[in-house]
Amino acid sequence: MALAAGCAHEDDDAFGAGVLAGGPAEQFTPPTAKLSGALRILAWSHFVPTYDRWFDGFAGRWADRVGVDVAVDHVDLGQITTRVAAEIYAGRGHDLIQAVAPLPQFEPAVLDLTDLVHEANRRWGSQLELCRRSSFNPATNRYFAYAPGWVPDPGNFRRSMWSKIGLPGGPSSWDELLHGGTEIRRATGVQLGLGMSQELDSNMVGRSLLWSFGSSIQDGEGRVTLDAPEAVDAVEFMTRLYRQAMTDEVFSWIPSSNNQGLVAGRLSYISNSISAWRTAQRSTPAVAADIEFVPALAGPAGAMAAHHLVHNWVIPKYATGAAAGQEFLLHYTANFAAATYSSMLYDLCAWPGRTPELTAWLRRDPFRADPPAKLALLVDAARWSADLGHPGTANAAIGEVAGSFIIPDMFARAARGEVSAAVAVADAAARVRSIYAKWQARGLVA
Asked: Comparing C-alpha atoms, which of 424, 388, 435 is closest to residue 196?
């Protein structure tokens, strides 16, 4: 087995060296057919480095048992989409590729994994709906990806800052975020941390705000619905939030910016996974103890947050190791409890029965949370989380809209005062409609 180093991890020195001890024992089920040859895997560089060390060893142990030569390469989060596009365009590269957001725009160039998903459902019950909707295209009746796991996106806040304004449990609504964030910035100069730049977190928080105000990019049938009064209301709200509680640095953030700002005490609240807190546990335990979490914030139309990540594994049509790749994914899913443990509870399984220990872990963190139940709110995270295509499913158009960062750009244009909220929404909707028309003409969007 060969391993190739990828780009630096977001928090590469945060969790120490080696693989975490005490995790679930690995299970092995022999493949349904004899395997041979090579399997080249491209995986993302995880925000929790202990996971990558576990995954590389896990893949090697499986390879030794089934007689396949496995090579694992890691790539930084921001380079995944361009790397996939380059390999697909060239018609050669890795046999099995892991993305951390839906990439349905590559559906014509990847294998239909319907049989693989059906086999997983036969073994472990129904797949979590959020993950199914992130990997299935109802227009073609194909699974363009296999989605065995996902990551929630709670609010992260500094309890000491919010306690001083009378909200020790943090904000529970967008209005409380606005008023509390404004008061904290006025008193201390510390701002909120919601990005409006071309990066992952900005994409997710923008969608969460739209949904909470009763708007969306598309409806349940895949029709564009962005150009609506509710979207204008959401953009006007974000503009107030920026002007009263943030600074212009949010327009140029990269994925690690809000993590670093929260841990350094420069931000009072961010929308993110648990990785910033895990970093602080090792580097600054006092800060980690001060970081708390809240579920999706309530808006006029309800409370819904976008997932932080959803794992989409694809097999390009050029792959020579497709059979081995599918068998490996079944083995990986069967052992997702070990994946969750090695990611320090960052990755959750699309087949919840594969991680029977999860509720106990979240209610009493095995990695020394202070207090131990800090992550208990994630027990029902699937209830307040949605996929990128909500209330429809992911499709090629949704994938391109996300990859083009149309939603963060929409919010940023209005917040900076370049155009009104209504014009920002209308322009964004026009771009979205153009993308949908292109993919509808190709038969990939209903």
From this structure: 424
